[in-house]
Design a protein that fits this description.
This protein has about 350 residues and is α/β, with parallel strands linked by helices. The protein has 13 helices and eleven strands. Strand 10, helix 10 (about 270-280) and strand 11 form a beta-alpha-beta unit.
Length: about 350
């Protein structure tokens, strides 16, 4: 069986303290347990998403990993938990709460279950402090949203945070959230189907066209979820604009497509044709297995598309399934509990 590392999965604790009562403000997330391993993630009084005990039960996660042939799974919080719009003191407390909950789930099998922390990204000093604390607690990196209110990833403070991530060796997973133009996409999950890919492309281009990658150290390990959104398909359009419009290249000294060696994307594109294009654009060292487990929009059998794609050589399949992720996460033999393939 090919060594497999899933870098994009989510968790929710089974329960957590009543944040509305704790802080005296409405519309905090909470879990309504329904029995039989079922629950409803709530946002205030509104139903947000039905979930199963895969989210919080470490033993259940390991069973699913065994069934899917996954050796290592990396968990990160559901973005609804970020609390970027709350006062920093509250967001810091919430981050500590959910970061500790993630480590409790990983304690079921710390060799195979890994975690990315969350931070109060609205305050860079607090975000750096929580990252340092969480890395000491056992997290191997951090998941951040692709923006904080109107601040994209090229914001000076967020660039400072990303530099700190490089300095302390934290892998960074960028996940889209709080999607644009939601009032125009009220039905059919269009915010997830249209808004999420656009948000992810926006976050990548914010780093490229602003020249941020020129200022960030090459040691930064950063990955964009959901295959980088619409980035790969539209990169030709971006290159064309850079060549022909000075307002596009004013802060970006090199052709945008030359920056694809500075970041990773996951494989959650659900189409062999899309995966082939993604590999062609990003290179075969820059695509990592990501499933979005255990949510319905995720890959239902983790890694199945890569395993079943007859066009992939065994060497490329091994890279996509686990070797690229081991590089992105800086995993070693001790971290994975097994000798990594050469």
């Amino acid at each position: 069986m090919t060594f497999a590392v899933d870098i994009h999965s989510h968790f929710l604790p089974e329960q957590w303290p009543d944040l509305e009562a704790r802080f005296g403000t409405p519309d905090w997330p909470w879990m309504k347990q329904l029995g039989g391993g079922r629950a409803m993630l709530m946002l205030g009084e509104r139903e947000f998403r039905p979930v199963l005990n895969d989210c919080w039960d470490g033993a259940r996660r390991i069973e699913a990993m065994d069934a899917h042939g996954v050796d290592v799974q990396v968990m990160s919080a559901t973005p609804l938990l970020f609390a970027y719009g709350r006062p920093v003191e509250q967001a810091s407390e919430v981050a500590r709460l959910f970061n500790s909950a993630a480590r409790e789930i990983c304690a079921h099998n710390p060799t195979r279950l890994k975690s990315l922390c969350q931070v109060p990204l609205q305050d860079i000093d607090a975000a750096c402090a929580e990252l340092d604390r969480a890395m000491g607690e056992g997290h191997i990196g951090v998941q951040i949203g692709n923006h904080v209110a109107d601040r994209n990833l090229d914001d000076a403070g967020i660039i400072t945070f990303l530099h700190h991530c490089a300095d302390v060796g934290a892998a960074v997973l960028v996940h889209p959230w709080d999607m644009m133009a939601q009032h125009r996409m009220p039905k059919y999950m269009l915010s997830w189907l249209v808004g999420m890919p656009a948000e992810t492309q926006l976050s990548i281009l914010s780093l490229i066209l602003s020249g941020a990658f020129e200022r960030l150290p090459e040691s930064l390990r950063i990955c964009f979820a959901h295959g980088g959104g619409s980035f790969a398909f539209l990169l030709g359009r971006v290159d064309n604009a850079w060549r022909n419009r000075d307002i596009v290249r004013v802060d970006c000294p090199k052709l945008p497509s030359t920056y694809t060696d500075r970041f990773f994307v996951d494989s959650a594109v659900f189409s062999e044709d899309a995966l082939a294009m993604l590999i062609n654009v990003m290179g075969d060292d820059r695509v990592v297995l990501g499933s979005d487990y255990p949510f319905p929009l995720g890959e239902q059998v983790v890694g199945q598309m890569i395993r079943d794609d007859a066009s992939l050589s065994p060497q490329l399949r091994a890279k996509l399934m686990g070797l690229n992720a081991a590089h992105f996460l800086n995993l070693d033999d001790e971290a994975t509990g097994r000798r990594l393939p050469a």
